[in-house]
Design brief:
Layout (H helix, E strand, L loop, with lengths): L2 H10 L2 E4 L3 E7 L3 H6 L14 E7 L5 E10 L2 E7 H12 L8 E5 L2 E7 L3 H10 L3 E4 L3 E7 L3 H10 L3 E2 L2 H11 L20 H4 L10 H9 L5 E8 L10 E3 L5 E11 L3 E9 L12 E10 L5 E2 L2 E2 L14 E12 L17 E12 L4 E13 L9 H5 L3 E10 L2
Parallel strand pairs: 1-10
Antiparallel strand pairs: 1-7, 2-5, 2-6, 3-4, 4-5, 7-9, 8-9, 11-14, 12-13, 13-14, 15-18, 16-17, 18-19, 19-20, 20-21
């Protein structure tokens, strides 16, 4: 299966990739939730069984030690993080184990898979049934199992309709979605804001955690001098890591951290650039359209201003005014340039489609009741589920609206 096919599966199906460069830290003990929540950037207290969160381990000075995904197991919390950082993170966290009923161990016998695609929930359920510990956020998820059970878990994923993919496909997806990779695009020298991870991996609503003061100060009062950004490049192939990013005048303003060629998008890159050269696009072109139709059941003429009933509502006279049924369909497509400067691609819709039906009751020329039902479907980025809010946003919005109106 080629790259293009795997990318299509990652969008419309379910692609499972074993992450052999990930290690699992197991947190046990009665105080595991409150203790871990006081160490990491994401809000572990909000984690529920069967879901996952994406977060960061940061130093006391707010610099990133590693990124991770966290899921719940019976009587334990599992943290999957880069193997290269597992020992350092464990050593740093253990310094803050004092009186808590909590233990931190490395699970050397664990295998980790990452799953992406609109059918992720379905195939992840098959892995859970086969004995794995899983976490899903609608269109993405994490699977952890014993290494000895790897073949059984992968067979379960495939039998449920999943496809086993390659790490190369995940690398291209990171370019398409602008999601940086630890050890490639960012490392321990950066703050979350420099790695453009503050919206995906940091909760600014939870209580105190290690490094919070610095991270919050940068967000609320300060600014960073450099930041990871996504680039679309006119080139025949991927750009070499470390290649200079320059202005049209030739001034070097940054350098490429990673690059890939996507079948539909062309050559993409992530680059660390000076913040002073990150002026956002100020003119956005959002596209939308709608069509509406109505029918006056009582026979009156309809106009832009509404309907004037032949007879006003009068209970004693047995007159009911005028009735109109209506329907409306519309679509909205947001300018790609809105992301991520004005909105996070992880928790904001890129497009929406809405259909509605309604009944208008005109009691008189100036008085009417309206009763409307709308259903809206939102389209989000394939990797959006790393942000918990995305699971809610991916659900259809269903709204029943009534209104009483006086017009003069």
């Amino acid at each position: 299966m080629d790259l293009g096919e795997e990318l299509q599966i990652a969008k419309h199906g379910a692609l499972a990739v074993r992450e052999k460069d990930r290690t699992v830290l197991r947190v046990t003990g009665e105080d595991r939730v409150t203790w871990l929540n006081g160490i990491v950037t994401c809000d572990v207290a909000k984690l529920t069984p069967g879901t996952f969160l994406y977060g960061l381990a940061v130093t006391q000075k707010g610099r990133i030690m590693a990124d991770f995904s966290v899921i719940l197991e019976h009587a334990a919390i599992l943290v999957t993080l880069p193997t290269s950082q597992a020992s350092a993170v464990r050593a740093a966290w253990e310094k803050y184990l004092v009186m808590e009923d909590c233990e931190l161990t490395v699970d050397d016998d664990a295998a980790v898979w990452r799953v992406v695609g609109s059918q992720s929930a379905k195939i992840i359920e098959s892995a859970r049934a086969a004995g794995a510990t899983t976490g899903v956020q609608e269109a993405a998820g994490v699977v952890v199992a014993k290494s000895a059970d790897a073949s059984k878990i992968e067979a379960a994923l495939v039998s449920a309709g999943g496809v086993l993919g390659s790490a190369d496909t995940l690398a291209v997806l990171s370019q398409i979605t602008g999601a940086p990779r630890f050890g490639v695009d960012f490392d321990g020298a950066l703050y979350p804001q420099e790695a453009a991870l503050e919206k995906r991996a940091v909760s600014f609503e939870k209580g105190c955690y290690l490094g919070q003061e610095v991270v919050c100060m940068l967000e609320m009062r300060g600014h960073v001098k450099r930041k990871l950004v996504s680039l679309a490049v006119e080139a025949d192939g991927p750009i070499e890591k470390g290649a200079a990013v320059s202005t049209v005048e030739g001034e070097k303003i940054g350098e490429v951290t990673s690059s890939a060629k996507a079948p539909d998008e062309g050559v993409l890159a992530l680059a660390m650039v000076k913040a002073s050269h990150m002026a956002p696009k100020t003119e956005l072109r959002n596209r939308s359209w709608q069509v509406a139709a109505g029918w006056v059941l009582t026979g009156e003429d309809s106009s832009y201003t509404g309907v004037v009933p032949r007879t006003n509502f009068d209970w004693s006279a047995g007159t009911w005014g005028a009735f109109e049924v209506a329907t409306r369909y519309g679509e909205l497509d947001i300018d790609d340039a809105a992301f991520p400067t004005f909105a996070s691609p992880g928790s904001n819709a890129e497009a929406a489609k809405s259909i509605g039906v309604g009944l208008n009751w005109y009691l008189s020329k100036i008085v009417r009741f309206t009763f409307d039902y709308y259903q809206t479907r939102f389209d989000l980025n394939a990797l959006a589920p790393t942000v918990p809010a995305a699971a809610l946003l991916r659900q259809d919005e269903k709204a029943l609206i009534s209104r009483f109106q006086l017009s003069f």
